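S1.2 Input.
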Amino acid sequence: MANTRSFSSVAASPGPAPAAAPARHRLRAVDRDEEWPLPQASGAGLLGQDVTALLPPGTTWLPAPPNALPTLPGRPPMIGYLILVPADQQTRLASAVPDAAPERPDPADEPLVRVDSVRRTAEIGGRPLDLTYLEFELLAHLVAHPHQVHTRDQLVTTVWGYGHVGDGRTVDVHIARLRRKLGAEHRDAILTVRRVGYKYAPPTAG
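S1.3 Output.
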């Protein structure tokens, strides 16, 4: 004969109600081959499976106290249950429950242009870019600051350094080289801001 205990809880009510005697719930151990009194699990990983198939011997269930359950405005009170698993059976239960499938990132959210400053590599759509030192530095700076407008003087100071002797035409030459290496499909990722400078607009897969 299974052991039984008594557990008290107060049923949830959507509004104020007169005090009533607390309901009594019988608590007992659940055998593995015993019919489970709750509905079958509806989760994607457990759909169509009997919950008892996942419960090791000695597992106990009981209604959760109403104050331990979340409430949604305008919705009926939720019903929940507490599952009590013996300590020596927890590992077995964890291995029996299938893991949720990991979320796959949306390919549309992946950047087409990738710059790795540690390995000093750059690629677009998986295609490696063969860049010179200054072309790499210029592209890395633009990619790190998307949609930000940079003047030619700012780019000379940041990429070439304060000691560089030259003018904005040096920047124009390197931008033109970068555009050619990005390819005709993505050359517009580096936009010209007339009479100001340049900005980087991350290209999309579409």
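S1.4 Remarks. The chain has two domains: 4-96, 108-200.
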